[in-house]
Amino acid sequence: MNILGIETSCDETAAAVWLTDHLASNKIASQEVHANFGGVVPELASRAHVKLILPIIQSALSEANINKQDLDGIAVTYGPGLAGSLLVGLNVAKSMALALKVPYIGINHMEGHLFSNSVLEKGPEPPFISLTISGGHTQLVYVKGWGDYKILGKTRDDAAGEAFDKVAKMLELSYPGGPAIDKLAKDGDPEYISLPKAKFKDNSLDFSYSGLKTAVLYHLQNLDSQERHRHKADIAASFQKAAIEVLIENSLKALEEHEIDELALAGGVACNSYLRKHLHQESNRRRFKLYVPPVNLCTDNGAMIARAGYFYLEKGERSEYTLSPKPSLSL
Question: Is 131 a residue whose pLDDT tops 90?
Fold first, then answer.
């Protein structure tokens, strides 16, 4: 089956082609306009998707060396995400499916991330634990089988990615904040200040980043302008250490509690070098298998949607044309 995957949940316009057992193309257009505002502007995002989506789809088809008439099905993200952005991708997918007389399937964006490690090489096979850290989501997911998931932990307020963006803004760094903090932290002292890591009395695997974010704000307010400049890298390193260590601790706890020896990373924050380095160290020490997708499959992409779509379309599952965007869709 030749499957076109379309992803427009936020500010990346992406399309990819999956040919039965391998990825044939993966095209992503990032919207740089949002950097001027320090965050994604929904109206600008949806307008950009309208301009970019057809050229991106054509580029993906061309790189895969197939015509749209060669498609056997279309997969598209229908949630969670920005309503206007989701609507663009979903309407294009429906229109193409109707015109080409092929089935289409709506894919949960977060489930797409679960499939991201199975795109370029042999990935984890259920059961495994996935640490999925994408945009407004931070989740520990027990993948019992493809299509059968249990959320073990989730954020109770800010997600990790949101915390990185907000702290980056406090430090007057560029957007998106994750890569900016990761780069600056390499020149800083992670032991400069001790910052809080949320722990819950019920022994939960949930996450919380509002307290950490506020602690950074209070620390900055107690510094004069010269001290802020002098210790900017140290603050970034200390924040990154606290933010990432709780992700690692909860992941290791989930593996132990469920007696699983495979952990997969997914989502944009999975690009973080501190996270990758320390989880690789823990993997070697505790002898569990760690799966980390390449950077272009951590951020939002069409390849993971095409791969997930192939799984469902091959089983004969289809979506109705009445399917609507679901911005708050849960896994």
Answer: yes
Q: What is the CATH number of the domain that holds 225?
A: 3.30.420.40
Residue 310 included in any domain: yes
H-run or E-run covering 222: none
Q: Are 257 and 141 in contact (CB under 8 A)?
A: no
Looking at the 3D structure of the chain, how many domains does it have?
A: 2
Q: Can you tell me the distance from the alpha carbon of 243 to that of 223, in angstroms, rounded to the nearest whole number?
A: 22
Q: Among candidates 177, 226, 48, 180, which has minimal Cα distance to 56?
A: 48
165-199: pLDDT as tens digits: 999 999 999 988 999 999 999 999 999 999 999 88
- φ/ψ of residue 157, rounded to 5: -150, -110
CA-closest candidate to residue 207, choices 137, 148, 266: 137
Cα separation of 286 and 269, whole Å? 23
Nearest-CA neighbor of 167 among 177, 156, 155? 177
- Tens of pLDDT, residues 90-114: 999 999 999 999 999 999 999 999 9
Question: Two tokens at 39?
Answer: 């965050």
What mean pLDDT is predicted for residues 214-243?
97
What per-residue confidence (pLDDT) applies to 203? 86
* pTM beyond 0.90, yes or no: yes
Residues 54 and 147 in one domain: no
Residue 51 amino acid letter: K
φ, ψ (nearest 5 deg) of residue 313: -65, -35
CA nearest neighbour of 78 among 170, 160, 5, 186: 5
DSSP 103: -
pLDDT band with cut points at 50, 70 and 90 for residue 77? very high
CB 266 within 8 A of CB 299: no
Q: Of 177, 120, 91, which Cα lies nearest the Cα of 293?
A: 120
Identify whether residues 198 and 160 lie together within a single domain.
Answer: yes
Which residues sit opposite 133 in a β-bridge? 138
